[in-house]
Every structure is written in C-alpha cells, then in structure tokens.
Amino acid sequence: MRLISAVSGVRIPAPPPKQKNPVGKPGFFMIHILSGSSTLNKTRQDRRSRQQPCIAGGVQVVCRTERLFQDPPHHGNNMNAVRNEIAPALLQQRASLRCRIEEKLGNAPLDYADQFSYIKKTWKEHKKHLAAGVFLLLEYRGGPERAEDAEPLIVLIKRSSTVSQSGDISCPGGMLNPLFDSLVSCFLTVGVPPMLRGEALKFARRRDKRTFRAIRLFLANAARESWEEIGLSPFNVSFLGALPTYSLRLFRRTIFPVVGLIKHSWQYKSNSEVEKIIEIPLNAFFNPGNYGRFYFQSDRSWQKSDEYPDYFPCLILRQEDDTEEILWGATFNIVTNFLRIVFESPLPMFHENTRYVSKIFPPNYLKGNTRE
Fold first, then answer.
1. 162 Cβ contact partners less than 8 Å away, ≥ 6 residues apart
2. Of residues 152, 140, 171, the one with CA closest to residue 281
3. How far is the CA of 331 from the CAs of 89, 155, 165, 334, in angstroms?
4. pLDDT category, 24, cuts 50, 70, 90?
5. 85 SS3 class
6. What pLDDT score was predicted for residue 199?
7. Are 260 and 138 in contact (CB under 8 A)?
C-alpha cells in the first residue's frame, strides 16, 4: 500500500513489513521485571547513534527516529503568543518543571475510578467497551549528563499499516490485559520496577483507594505496551502523574493516559505496530505558527456518524526531509490537555493565519491490514 502526505499529496511508498519482536510478549515483560535487568547499563552504547541497527529476536531491525523541527514563530500582534511566553522559559528549568508537573497533575480532578467501573460493568453485560493505557513520555535529549537547560521532548509513535488508525501519531500504549496488568501493578506497589516513587506517588496515594488502584493498573498497562512497541524498559521511566481519560468517537474505547519521564536515552526497538518514532520539542506547542485546521479529504464513507466538525485542531510539524507530519485527534487532545493543566494557560491554537491541511485516509484505516 502507499501513504499520501497530508499536505503535499505526494505518494510515499509504505515501509516493508517488520518482523515480530518475541521479547514484546507479556511473559518476557514479566521476566524483565523479575530479573531486575534494564537498559540503564547500556546507556553509553545506546547514545552513540539512534540510527544503528538493533537485534531483536535474531532479526536485524533498523529503528528509524525522526526529530521534528519548527519554523520561527510569526507572532505579529497575536496576544495568545505574548500570554504564552512564560511557558517556554519554564521548559528550560528541568527540576522546576518536574515539580510543577507532579503538583499540577497530582491535584487535578481525575475520573479513572468512575470510568473504569463503567467499563467493567459493560464487560458483565457482554458489551465491547475497551480500556487502553497509554504513556505520554517526556525525554531530555542526551540524558541527565546534559546541561540543565536541555530541551524537553515528547516521544510519540506513528502507527503502521498493520494496525487500526494507520498513519496517525499516538502515544505508546494499548489495550488493557486485566489479569496480567493487575499482576504487574502489584509489583509497582513495592517498587519493582521503580516507576511509582517520590512526589508523584505521594500525590497518587492522596486520592481515594479506587482511583489509586486504577492509576496503578493503567500505569502497568502503559509500561507493558511501551515495552512491546518501542522497547522502553520500565526501569528507565519515572511516573509523573495521570491525566483525565479520553473516550474515542469511532471506537467503543476509553484511553487512560499516564505521564512518564524517561531517565536515560536508549535505542528504540520498534515492533511491527510502529512505523517510526517521532520526537516533538515541547516548546512546539507554544508556537502559534505550528497549529492548523485539519479536515478529511474523502467522502468519509468509513465514518459511523455524521456528527463530526468540519475540521479538527492539529499541530503541523515539518521534518528534516521537508515533509510534514500532522498531530490531531485523541493524542493532540491528550497532549494539549496536559499542557493546559500544567501551565494553566490557553494554547495559541488559532489566529488569522492558521493553515488548513487535509489527509486522505487509507481504505483500511479503521482495521489495519492484519489486526483490529
């Protein structure tokens, strides 16, 4: 199949199919936790190059990483841009930013307990409403040895043609495995792996017991899926807090996002569900020139309802090869909601020069080539 650029309309050959990574299965994830092994002792080797091939299950896989960059902002007389100048300054204060994230997320209203209770009720009634834990991951390029003003990035994935919503940008994560993820969440309580610690743990424990258990469950869910999809070790990420849930329109599915900070740079090991890794500088969301209005350039025959807006807000990011990626939909809303909670300020989404961009969805957009 062929992908079509969201802006230029240029056809791009789809990447060759990837081999399944056997270490991505839940059993290997549990072995990794119990053995206490992590990628931390390989940090120096991994930092040499993110373009080096990695060996996964005897198969050599080249893991592609694309860093996105932005044009200089064109603020003009935009008052939103002036109002948001404070946020980029805070982005360069690593310790202060982490404290602020933990505090704001720890005190924000959270609907995990009620939403998960509703979902479990639908299971008993034999209705197919799914729950998914995802990781909104932050990373400082170069790891802790870099200067204090290192640039924070958001690590996302572009979904491959083998899964539903192919071509979309999303957070690493996936469907809840109730039995297995519950078992892993019990280990989190005793600090194995050490994701749930410090101030974020204190804030989480201050909530009611049902909410705390739900946070712990979907943190385990997100960690397992991130291990499977991009090879992120649960020993290499710290939990910063949870975000309100987000329910999808096209699917009977509710997303439970948790925020994590990657401790050390590591070599991505993406599986067949991931076309590529995308890193977005956090300050890109404070540049009004990066926002756009996204609409579908199709007959929308794949939609289940006509109750959709004419366009969706999106983030347009130019890559180093002069193409563009579009962040929209659920992941766009999760990221922007995170920024609104942390910085308590509206984002400069729309102005007089906001661009319109479109995308043609592949026929298998809802189901993918081989998976639902």
1. 17, 272, 273, 368, 369, 370, 371
2. 152
3. 24, 12, 12, 5
4. low
5. coil
6. 95
7. yes
Give the C-alpha separation, 125 to 87, whole Å.
46
Identify the helix (H) or strand (E) that includes residue 300.
none
H or E element at residue 187? helix 178-189
What count of residues does the chain have?
A: 372
Q: Tell me the C-alpha distance between 166 and 366, whole Å.
A: 8
Does this model's pTM top 0.85? no
* Closest CA relative to residue 241, chosen from 98, 109, 105, 337: 105
CA–CA dist 331, 134 (Å, integer):
10
- Residue 161: other Cβ atoms inside 10 A: 21
CA atoms within 13 A on the CB side of 244: 16
pLDDT at 76 over 70: no
Q: Any residues with CB less than 8 A from the CB of 240 and at least 6 apart, and which?
A: 98, 101, 102, 105, 138, 200, 259, 260, 261
DSSP 208-227: -HHHHHHHHHHHHHHHHHHH
